[in-house]
Amino acid sequence: MKKRIALLPGDGIGPEVMAGCQKVLEAIAERFNHEFLFEEGKIGGGAIDAEGTPLPEQTVALCEKSDAILLGAVGGPKWDDAPSHLRPEKGLLGIRKKMGLFANLRPVSTVKSLIPASPLKEEVVSNVDLLIVRELTGGIYFGQPSGREGDKVVDTLEYTKQEIERIVRKGFELASVRRGKLTSVDKANVLESSKVWRETVNRIAPEFPDVEVEHQLVDSAAMQLIRYPEQFDVIVTENLFGDILSDEASMLTGSLGMLPSASLRSDGFGMYEPVHGSAPDIAGKGIANPLAMIMSAAMMLRYTFNLFEEAQAIEVAVQHTLEEGYHTKDLVIENGQELGTEGIIEKVIEQINE
Amino acid sequence: MKKRIALLPGDGIGPEVMAGCQKVLEAIAERFNHEFLFEEGKIGGGAIDAEGTPLPEQTVALCEKSDAILLGAVGGPKWDDAPSHLRPEKGLLGIRKKMGLFANLRPVSTVKSLIPASPLKEEVVSNVDLLIVRELTGGIYFGQPSGREGDKVVDTLEYTKQEIERIVRKGFELASVRRGKLTSVDKANVLESSKVWRETVNRIAPEFPDVEVEHQLVDSAAMQLIRYPEQFDVIVTENLFGDILSDEASMLTGSLGMLPSASLRSDGFGMYEPVHGSAPDIAGKGIANPLAMIMSAAMMLRYTFNLFEEAQAIEVAVQHTLEEGYHTKDLVIENGQELGTEGIIEKVIEQINE
Lengths: 354, 354
Ligand SMILES: CC(C)[C@H](C(=O)O)[C@@H](O)C(=O)O
Ligand SMILES: CC(C)[C@H](C(=O)O)[C@@H](O)C(=O)O
Prior knowledge:
2 copies of one chain form a homodimer. By secondary structure, chain A is an alpha/beta fold. Chain A has 2 domains: 206 residues, 3-Layer(aba) Sandwich (Isopropylmalate Dehydrogenase); 123 residues, 3-Layer(aba) Sandwich (Rossmann fold). Chain A is 40% helix and 24% strand. The first copy, chain A, has 12 helices and 14 strands. In chain A, the strands form 3 sheets. Chain A has a 10-stranded mixed sheet with strand order 2-1-3-12-11-4-5-10-8-9, sandwiched between helices. At the A-B interface, strand 6, strand 7, helix 7, helix 8 and helix 9 of A face strand 6, strand 7, helix 7, helix 8 and helix 9 of B. Strand 7 of chain A pairs antiparallel with strand 7 of chain B. Bound molecules: 3-isopropylmalic acid (IPM) (2 copies). One 3-isopropylmalic acid (IPM) sits at the interface of chains A and B. One 3-isopropylmalic acid (IPM) sits at the interface of chains B and A.
């Protein structure tokens, strides 16, 4: 198979973890006889410095002619005080919207060797395996008006029925190929948009008779994620709730440095990025953990290229690497051996080649 | 001191915990020589059944002539499918707005004997002592428009500068009499209202040179609350973020059944209620935990009546009761003795009278 992959390394540790990820994909291409064509584009702070905008047109053009996008991370203190339109995250929001990446998937599952690093008790998190499906191109992130007028400031949470329907349907589809449980999260006791959301879930439910549906209010879901996270299979929710809950969920299993994400369009095209940020404090030191970036590449192979065996080869390689006790500085494995970014990449590639 | 206290027991376990709370306040009145005049009003589901509205005018009138309000809890499955304006929580939102209760205070602190019941590890929560200050009468809860038009649905997050200023100032004031640290939570990388929020915090900060100020994004705060909750002293945030984060925080220390809240007006008038809900599944069984309601009454004595010694008498009584191993069914104390609602109230009153 021949695929064009746009690489947007971004800021901070982005370039380091992307370099490692590319090597892993090259090992996969070699072993499974594919051709991956990589081309790099600028986004975020680096793009602001070089081109005066967080999302240059060439980057959009590159993404449009590619089969999938890999993104590292954007942002850093250097651009923190810049005006809105010159902030790195505008690049991220822009590419999501421009490419129509409406479905953000964030799986969180327990990695046995990392449980000791969780702030939660082992018995609470030992079997967590959940997937947050977050709407990514609507809601209060993009609604108008958003601005000041005299003494007032407003933001607008806006959805069309179609936008709600397609993400809810995505949630059902994913639940039906997992454990068959969908938890829809809203604030239907306060928000009109949440009422429409809940009605939509209830209207679509009969199309998926094998999926058990449950509604939770967002405040309650924020509690339940800590109290009893194993109750969740797929959680589907709107943009801002998904932002908050997925970050909360990323803390559960002590494996933040391992968590991948996918942002998908209806036709399967997607952008893949680690959940962690650009970690400017450790950038350039050669100690960044590339595993979340690599796991994101595995999601790309599975969701956009339908290369299931190849995706699994990466996931198994990562798992074995950890089981053998190899880890980066951010992970805690008892009696393990700490390696740098390049060191752990080598171990993963050895596993792939075995 | 002579005080009129409006009692709004509400639904589910509300009436049971309110009855216990009233007894405790009577014991305080006796011991410290005060006169508390109690008068009951309807709110929530019970008010819908009796009067056809979740917030009858008599209830508002009662609150207006009182010196403070104690609220039990509202809601239950019976009213879950009712149209918006006939839902119990409309009573709660209505009374907050009508009485101008803009500052919601939710303290969460570790109770040593309850740590084993926390889903978090002991070393993570053994010294939690934080206070969430949530804006309660603005934001997306009340902004207009909120409704459907054709295929679209919108909600509006709206604040005036004055609304942001008064809650931020409240946060600073509270931080300055606690450990001197204020964490302001917003989503300034996306929302215009959050930018105004952050500017307001930075503008007011110089008035409180002894308070250390920090900004966190709401997604990051949702992570940090689990990762390292002891970093927080006072957290100040807008209505919906406060709703989500305070419920999340309520899970930290394993003591949900103990957590009180205050909703204050600028002149010190306030409504006090437990953080837990109406728990319809255990209503009427005599097993509900009244301690959060009692701790709410202690907050009333302190914040609205300035009766510091009396407030402390309640808090110490509750603490000693738990230390002696007495607890209700929802709490877990190793080698403790389980009591019903009335049983634990008796123990608390014994402590007060000692
Ligand atoms: C950087 C920010 C705009 C972004 C978001 O809120 O969507 C981030 O938090 C995320 O979750 O990818
Ligand atoms: C019942 C509901 C409207 C309310 C809120 O969202 O404010 C509740 O969750 C709370 O926190 O008191």
